[in-house]
Amino acid sequence: MFTTAPYLLAAAWAALAAPPATPDVLAARFPDAQLDDKALCDRLLARTAADAAVFVDPEPRTRRKVIVSDLHLGPGATDQRFAGIEDFYSEAEWTAFLERQAAAGPTDLIINGDFIEFWQIAAALGALPKRTDPKQPATGTALASDQRFAVSAIELVLAAHRSVFTDLGKLIERGDNRVIVVAGNHDADLLWPKVQLAVARAIAPRDPSRLLFTSGPGYEHGGVHVEHGHAFDAANRFATGHAPFGRDRDGTCRLQSSWGEVFVDQFYTDVERKVPFIDNLYPQSAAILWAMRDNPDPQRDAGAVIGFIDLLRAAESREFNHSAIASLLQGALGTPGRGDRGPESVAEVIEHVADRLARGDVSAGAITGALLHLRFDPQLAGLWIGLVRAGKALPDMRAAMTELGAIDAEAVAHLHDQLFGDPLNTAASRLLGGARDIKVVVFGHTHAVGGSVEPIGARKKSGWYANTGSWIAAASVADLRARGVGWDQLKLADRTMFPARNVAVTIDYKRGVPEKPVLITSPPPEPRR
After folding, report:
1. What does the radius of gyration of the chain's CA atoms come to, in whole angstroms?
2. How many CB atoms lie under 10 A from the CB of residue 464?
3. Second label for 92, Cα 20 to 30 Å away, from 128, 203, 398, 467?
């Protein structure tokens, strides 16, 4: 007679003899990754302003800080769906860089935004709903990617750049080191809990508490404020705080969009496929004008103008158009306006300067002088004439394109340098002092070639502003033009034109107070002989 008793006894014995299952400590660190879409969206939409504020680290120990940004890890270069959009080719330099930091003593490595290039992956895959898509809300801000897309995108990046993440795990394991990840505008998808869990599994720290993801726009600790910087850029800021969320008409939870993301989705990614080095020229506004003047391509340029006009038409609200137009002036002219949104008019520019004078900004005097002489600067005459003529030519896009193409890229760079410089400098000055006594402010976002460190002051306080540059091979339009390099001579693989200045900002402490930031490059410069 057949009986199941022996088999049941054997199964019970096997269960008793087997070792207990190892708890998934990483999954426990990200409990929201277990929620379904509705429950997660309920939680995200219930966030208050305090929940999305800058993260103030309660860590009692002060370690040296090493800050990097703008690696823009993409999906690799083997899949033809993504041809021309991979920007990160510094795996070996990254490995050596982290080994040097691990050997330097207890370190907090802060990855300050745009670590991952989600935007162009979404554009290449057509993953973002257009403004006219029935899924979009009837009113309010347009919505972008959902968590399902973000998980599929991060899997592509992890497969293409596995060593970048395993090296972070090695850094954590080699001493009293931590890794802090701050989301930027291109990688706001890092705010999705399932994406954070996927990245954490790739890094695989034995002690999960040594890997932190911030949910707000920045990070503060030990007198240092670290923030990507897109919140001060009208083209790339989010409508209601840092990377907020919303539900589409189908009930799917999505990130809010920004004008910059729409620009990348509908225009920029296609341009980079045709001109792979456009993302490697700084400032990009001058690069685009250079291309239109020295390398005219009627099909490309006409498409650019049409695409741009379509962007403005796709804007879902007056506020969205307001930010888009302001960002054009901010990007082209380098002029921060009220609230750092970019100027709406000459009157607002003057108001902005007056505000800086009233706050004792030492650079405001130079700005005022530049404004007074603006109309008499021969290097700027063509710029103003071209902008005015292009504006009057619309909606005749062919005529507008012709007028824009006549603008000298050097005039844009000249105005940027002479008039306002980096708008993030003003934001950094405003962050000095305060209840947490900030001494050093670090931004990224601009891809400033080689990074920068400069003194800042406000309200009788002084400190330092540092910019982390990027890990993308980059070149200054002004430098290339000064060297006589023509558009048709540009070659991204030529490191004499596009040097790989992989930049980091390091901050040491003396008696608990942060010292002047120091820029380092990877690989380090060779010693002079």
Report:
1. 25
2. 21
3. 467
Which residues are CB-contacts of 214 (< 8 A; sequence separation ≥ 6)? Answer: 54, 55, 180, 181, 182, 183
The answer for 433, left when phi > 0, alpha when psi is -120 to 50, beta otherwise, is: left
3 state SS of 504: strand
Q: Hey, what are 50's tokens?
A: 């305090």
CA–CA distance, 382 with 412 (Å, rounded to integer): 10
* CA–CA distance, 19 with 69 (Å, rounded to integer): 43
Task: For residue 350, count other CB atoms closer than 10 A to its CB.
Answer: 13
Which two tokens mark 202? 């790739």
Query: Within 13 Å, how many C-alpha atoms sit on residue 155's CB side?
Result: 7
**Are 145 and 118 a contacting pair, CB within 8 Å?**
yes
The one-letter code for the residue type at 146 is D
Distance, CA of 433 to CA of 460 (rounded, Å): 9
Phi first, then psi, for residue 284 (nearest 5°) are -65, -30
Q: Tell me the pTM.
A: 0.75
- Look up residue 302 and give its two tokens: 């006409």
Torsion of CA 215, 221, 226, 227, to 10 degrees: 30
User: What is d(CA 3, CA 25) in angstroms, rounded to the nearest whole number?
Assistant: 41
**75: which DSSP letter?**
S
pLDDT in tens, 127-176: 999 878 899 998 878 899 999 999 999 999 999 999 999 999 999 999 99
CB contact at 8 A, 228 and 217: yes
The reported pLDDT for the residue numbered 298 is 52
For residue 416, what are its two tokens? Answer: 């940027």
Per-domain residue ranges of the chain: 63-522
Tokens of 24: 């998934």
Residues facing residue 388 across a β-bridge: none
Nearest to 104 by CA among 66, 69, 61: 66
Instruction: State the amino acid at position 117 in one-letter form.
Output: E
DSSP-derived 3-state class of residue 53: coil
Q: Is 451 helix (H, G, I), strand (E, B) or coil?
A: coil
